[in-house]
Amino acid sequence: MDRQSVEQVRRFNRTVTQRIGALNDRFMSRDRPLGEARVLWEIGGGDGTTVRSLRNRLDLDAGYMSRLLRSLQADGMATVEPHPDDRRVRVARLTDDGLEERALLDRLSDQMARSFLSPLKESQQARLVEAMGVVERLLTAGLVEFDVADPTSPDAQHCLDAYVDELDGRFEGGFDPDRSISADADELTEPDGLFLLARLHGEPVACGALKFHHNEPAELKRMWVDPSARGLGLGRRILAELEEQARRHRVTTVRLETNRTLTEAITLYRSAGYKEVEPFNDEPYAHHWFEKDLDVDSVAGTQLPGPGSRDRGGRTVQ
Amino acid sequence: MDRQSVEQVRRFNRTVTQRIGALNDRFMSRDRPLGEARVLWEIGGGDGTTVRSLRNRLDLDAGYMSRLLRSLQADGMATVEPHPDDRRVRVARLTDDGLEERALLDRLSDQMARSFLSPLKESQQARLVEAMGVVERLLTAGLVEFDVADPTSPDAQHCLDAYVDELDGRFEGGFDPDRSISADADELTEPDGLFLLARLHGEPVACGALKFHHNEPAELKRMWVDPSARGLGLGRRILAELEEQARRHRVTTVRLETNRTLTEAITLYRSAGYKEVEPFNDEPYAHHWFEKDLDVDSVAGTQLPGPGSRDRGGRTVQ
DNA sequence: CATTCTCCTTGACTTTAGTCAAAGACATTG
DNA sequence: CAATGTCTTTGACTAAAGTCAAGGAGAATG
């Protein structure tokens, strides 16, 4: 990473981030404290939002959050009521006035976006929008955190359920995990295997798993990327992380089987150095079997902490 | 401007700007209030900074600024002394401790920049840096404000001096404005002409001027763009603004002459529809003469306010 | 050289943001 | 059903951010 790149990133942080960010805040808090405005915005136009989820999304103290809601309530912008299913939980909902205010913020936000584009010629507008997309995606990709997780944890279950749903939708005859070769929680927990989870802003967005077989090749299982996070190169990173973990467990060969409808995955495996081999098991849903020999010597050591870990303070690690 | 573009800009504002901005603030204020940290940073490592300029750059209240400086002084980070030339003005300067602290912030800023890049593959890093550059330049370009200004004002003089210096450096035999066709302040002031100034964050970065000749073609003069602002398309925008102003003054034809060493300018004129014509004056420094007929019918009307005007509150207009 | 203006500081606030612990209302569980 | 745990609110603070007006020191001006 050269000096020039670092300079460019810093200039970007200063110029774009600071200036536009300040602008954003200023317009958000038109005549109300920024904190309140943000809560107003986050409650959203839908069916209401639990206080808990507001607190998580805005990363605010429970007491503070409560006070902000009280203040919005006093302004007639929101109501807070107990959740019908669990009366400890409370749900905030915007009143008509609140909805109107939020719609105004929405229009202003639009107007601000337009004001960035309007001074530019059309070709420049297109270039700006394109470049913003690239920056957004690549920075987002950098914020993803990988952890070995318990496959029975809620986040892991979310991924595994989504994985099954997706295969069921894509395979010609659907997908029933009971008919497939097993990859149960205990098989994906050390020392028999491991489950790797990728999170973005705390939300699970991708996963992958390994089953170890002592001196036999390890099996790669349950590779999945959330649709909203595709195109960030997460699949490739999950794969690399799993291989890294496999090396740490002294695995020399990794194997996997896959279905012919999963074309992106097949492309990924090939480009990551996996070679197609003869079927090594009788997985009924598989059409292709792949294998890769790992270079055990190069177990990577140091890794700089990504911005994600810094961003979220100490709460990241489980 | 389509809906998708606006959405992308908004997503960018949310994701990139907010998140990175917050990150930036958090690391800036390590163990001292953000306000103080910003002042510490802005004072800089150089020969000291006047309190007034700090106030302008950070856009803070005079009283608040004073208090922040007092606080840095108490921490032994800075000194504040009267300006030698004008003892009302006071100059803030960092102490050795202050310089050390600032160097630390500098290193952290570097580290943060690296942390954005390090999770990415090299090719992705390059794409990110490239895209950040594009976003920065195009957003910056959108923040430039154009005003008709008094050519005797300090900002205008700055541009005119820089213009003369630049020509003097680039023309084969130097440039002496007294030997060239005149473009004095009164000739560039309405109703005889006008002087257009482009500012970025309040600093003059480009200019251009017109001399009107009643029913004769108007003359285009003093086109200049600050080296730091080249590549933003400012030349083209100055040109377009001047033509717009000319149309408002019922000018039907604009003329200009230029020197062969000014190749970018010549390219610009040609691409903006200027046709090379026979010499129409005896400007000693000129090698090319250009002319363009204006379409008088289409005097543009509405113009959306750029983000610049919003950004700087009411203080933008002179 | 008195007046006016500029630049900065100070005092006296207010508002926003945020923290922490106690407690109340409700749900869950052995 | 008592004990324990969860979710949220309230009270009691603190720190940071920001505003406003008065005033003092120095420069500029008629």
What does this protein look like?
Two copies of one chain form a homodimer. Chain A is α+β, with helices and mostly antiparallel strands and 318 residues long. The first copy, chain A, has two domains: 3-119, Arc Repressor Mutant, subunit A (Orthogonal Bundle), CATH 1.10.10.10; 144-315, 3-Layer(aba) Sandwich (Aminopeptidase). The first copy, chain A, is built from ten helices and ten strands. In chain A, the strands form two sheets. Chain A has a seven-stranded mixed sheet with strand order 4-5-6-7-8-10-9, sandwiched between helices. In chain A, strands 1-3-2 form a three-stranded antiparallel sheet. The longest helix of chain A has 26 residues, at 3-28. The first copy, chain A, is globular. The first copy, chain A, binds a DNA duplex (30 and 30 nucleotides) through helix 4.
The assigned structural class of chain A equals alpha+beta
CATH topology of the largest domain in chain A: the name is Aminopeptidase
Distance between the termini of chain A: 31 Å
Strand segment count of chain A: 10
Q: Indicate the percent of residues in helices of chain A.
A: 40-55%
Q: Characterize the biggest β-sheet of chain A.
A: 7 strands, mixed
Assembly classification = homodimer
Q: pLDDT under 50 segments of chain A (min length 5)? A: 301-318
CATH superfamily of the largest domain in chain A: Gcn5-related N-acetyltransferase (GNAT)
Query: Over the alpha carbons, how many angstroms does the gyration radius of chain A reach?
Result: 24 Å
Quickly name the level 1 CATH class of the largest domain in chain A.
Answer: Alpha Beta
Task: Please state the second-level CATH architecture of the largest domain in chain A.
Answer: 3-Layer(aba) Sandwich
Largest interface: chains, residues each: A-B, 60 and 60 residues
- The order of strands across the largest sheet of chain A is 4-5-6-7-8-10-9
The percent range for strand residues of chain A is 15-25%
What is the count of DSSP helices of chain A, taking H or I runs of 4+ residues?
Answer: 10
Task: Using the alpha-carbon principal axes, give the shape of chain A.
Answer: globular
Question: How many structural domains are formed by the residues of chain A?
Answer: 2
Residue-averaged pLDDT of chain A: 89
Order of helices and strands of chain A: HHEHHEEHHEHEEEHEHEEH
